[in-house]
Amino acid sequence: MRTAPQQAFSMGDVQPPPSVWNPPQPSSLAPEGQSPSKYMHCSVGCIPASAAVAQKFSLPISVVIHPLNDVAGEEEVPVVNFGSTGVIRCRRCRTYVNPFVVFIDAGRRWRCNVCGLLNDVPSDYYCNLDSNGKRRDITERPELSCGTVEYVAPADYMVRPPQPPSFVFVIDVSARAVQTGMVREACTTIRSILSQLPGQPRTQVGFLTFDSSFHFYNLKSTLSEPQMLAVPDLDDPFLPLPSELLVNLNECRGLVDALLEKIPSTFANTTNPDSALGPALQAACAMMQHVGGKLQLFQACQPTLGKAQTRPREDTSLLGTDKESTLLNPSTDSFKTLALEVCSKSQISVDLFCCCEGHADLATLVPVAKYTNGQIFHYPNFEASRDADTFRADLIRSLTRPMGFEAVMRIRASQGVKVSAFHGNHYLRGADLLALPTIDADKAFSCDLQLEEQSLTCSHVAVQCALLYTTSQGERRIRVHNLNLPVSTNMQDLYTTLDTRATMNVLLKTAVEQAMNTKLMDARSRLQSACVNCLRGHRLMCQGAELTEEAKLLPIYVLAALKSLVLRDGVEVRADERSMLMMMVGSATTHATASMLYPSMFALHRLSGTPYGLPGSDGVVQMPPLVRLSTECLEAEGLYLLDTGYLLLLWIGKNAHPQALMELLNLDSAERLDGAKVNLPQLQTDLSQRALGILNRIRQSHPLALSLYTVRQGGAAESKMLQFMVEDRTLSTMSYPEWWN
Question: Could you tell me which residues are beta bridge partners of residue 708?
């Protein structure tokens, strides 16, 4: 809808959208004492000195946190062990000692940079100061020189001793699950990576299968083969052998291997169509509630038995109406109740692999993963012959990525500034404690900062994030990230230091929350208003100053958000697809939301004679410039690769040269490729090697396994590609030039 006033965007010539691929960058040297941006960064580089300036700026002042974003090959986070001294913290606000505290009285006391309290320095932590007032041992103390550190947590930071990493696999064995090949793929993949599960040799595993009843498996090491124990009582599920269902993997490896080989054949001829997913999930939680851990749930059909059921409710007449939000919210609170009262309290995180045919009512299932910091993987109309490689890669990633257990996270900010809201997939325990049964390298969170007073008198605002968690090796750690942001009275500084991608990460998460709480149109209107008011504020308050190139990207990203499948109005986006994408947004990193909003498109047919697609001097494949997301930029002779962050599309022009098709796909015609899922063959041609180099680098930058689909110009599947051409006009939204002017 054209609700944005034209004058809000009267800024001259249309600003070109992003032209350079912008993946997560290797950590550069962070400013002294600041956390590297890969772990924590702010949407602006300074904090407004007054609430009035913040209000006129109109965009959120937010921090995006990616707490376990360790990158292989980069310097590891320094570990600090205070030993008998105990962790050094402010006795009032509990801030951890960090590079921005000030030592006074010859080093005998230190002033907290968050609340200003003077704290005594323990005698065995004392060090005298140099002529600049700095401790002489500062270079030997990572906690006083590094923005991100990890403390070894003493016993008083533990409610109980660290538990062994535990994984329970709950597998649907109904007729459809078997017929589609999901059961075999799940069992084969799990078996192939047992040795890679975190926490060896302490790792524990357990298994449960379900159809109209559910089946436990006794894996006691003294047995010669696994024993199946069927439980038909769905209303009051019980554990037949509580101590022998969750076992040490190393001690029982032979039985576990035998079970995973046996499950597909045991149910190979089943005709049972039913699914007792809810009771099975309850029973699995009971298996592991004494230790917590990771629960992997594999589903092939909608739950039909038990109290917790989903139901077919894809009412297309509600799409695009004020009542659409009812399709985005659960039809029953059963799964949310299970997530909060059982999973979260018992430190259980749930990953759901949904392989249902047709409508799955994902909105009802989402809470069990959302409130436990889990994840949902969706494979509509799953067929192993087509989807096995993606399913396998996602499952391997979910089980082997770096992860922590029994985590809680808290963000503190300087006096006069408060954390007003949290965004992400978590359960907020109390006012400010994020409960995270597990935490992994792919999850990000964000929070909004708000001034509590009309004006700030301090020169800097400190923000500290503390994550208390258990490593897979069984060590209790506190990972601390620090930012120290200058306070500015100049509104222009907010625009100069604006990080558009971080801002959009928070705006999109906020819009998703509003769409679910009220309606989609409200979320879209709020997003437009934030953009319009921000740019109007610049024109009124920063007269004569030009927007930075970074700030000029805000309109295209907001327009892209309005046209994205997450927030798009109309009947094109099904409820399951939108629910899945909203769940993804909740834990998305800055790079993930940027890819989702303005996908990267590359012209593969223009690679010849360029350095693109080949390794540079640093050994990293060089990426070609981006093609603008408009049908005007798609040449009929072209081959274009589109990266959406969760899906890859290869657009084939109707006049694409047969030789190019042969060199890329080993085919001389694309007639049968419209909408097909493909894997690019490894050919000894220049185009093939360059395209594979680009494709592999794209996939390495995303945690999800990205399937590649081909679409032909003019074909029935081309609409999949056209929906990402965010610069073009749609029935309800302007084109980018219209939007800008």
Answer: 648, 678
> What is the C-alpha to C-alpha distance for residues 6 and 239, in angstroms, rounded to an integer?
65
Which H or E run includes 533? helix 520-541
Distance (Å, whole) CA 308 – CA 333: 8
Query: Taking CA 297 as the corner, what is the angle to CA 291 and CA 299, rounded to the nearest 5 degrees?
Result: 160
**Alpha-helical regions (H) of 21-98:** 51-57
Q: Which residues are bridge partners to 419 per DSSP?
A: 449
- Which residues, including other chains, have CB under 8 Å from residue 15's CB and lie 6 or more apart? 549, 552, 553, 555, 556, 740
Cα–Cα dist 247/256, whole Å: 9
Q: Are 218 and 241 in contact (CB under 8 A)?
A: yes
* Chain-centroid distance, C-alpha 443: 4
Which of 451, 612, 559, 463 minimizes the C-alpha distance to 148?
463
From residue 163, alpha-carbon distances to 347, 398, 470, 485 in Å are 10, 20, 8, 38
Please report the sign of the dihedral spanned by the C-alpha atoms of residue 21, residue 23, residue 26, residue 29. Answer: positive
- How far apart are the C-alpha atoms of 484 and 1, rounded to whole Å? 40
Q: How many CB atoms lie within 10 A of CB 631?
A: 12
- Which residues are within 8 A (CB) of 633 and not within 5 positions of it... i.e. 6 or more apart? 601, 627
pLDDT in tens, 666-716: 998 888 888 899 999 999 999 999 999 999 999 999 998 999 999 999 999
Helices (H) and strands (E) in the chain, counts: 20, 28
Is the previous residue joined to 201 through a cis bond, with omega within 30 degrees of 0? Answer: yes
**What is the Cα–Cα distance from 51 to 53, expressed in whole angstroms?**
5
pLDDT tens by residue, 146-172: 999 999 999 999 989 999 999 999 999
